[in-house]
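Tutorial, part two.
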Amino acid sequence: VAYLGKGIVLNKFTGSRGKSGSNDANAEYIGRIRKMFDDEDVAYKILCYTHYSLQGDLEGKRGILEKLAHKLEPNENELQQINPCLKKHLFGAFNNLNIRHNNIEAMDGYFNKNFAQLQDTEKEELYDSIYRDCLIAFLELENSSVRQKVKQIIAKK
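Running the prediction step on this input gives:
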């Protein structure tokens, strides 16, 4: 299903032959993943983004990306420390690819001629890539707290 919709799938079990011989994600890990999506509206938007009904719907995808941008914004400094390239890429995209600012109207102060001239299919490909990068950013932020915890446990040894 993830391949068809080009989205992500969260599985408790991974491996082959179903549960037999697979790795079982522990409850704490699954809980942390759920916590990332605790905002019901954001979780719904993340699920909706990959739905076939949004294929070709630039405005729908733009709206979801805008919501994800607002969710990431309070963590901008932390993301800068964890992954400065991802932070620069995402926030540059939010501000220059018609996600948070009007970059397609020539009269607007945020006008971006390069983006405005793209075909809709090219814009959608960019939006889809930015969506995946948003998910990576959420995971990076979550993994950062886990890394800190591991560091503390190792230091106490």
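The radius of gyration is 18 Å. In part three we will examine how such features are distributed along the chain.
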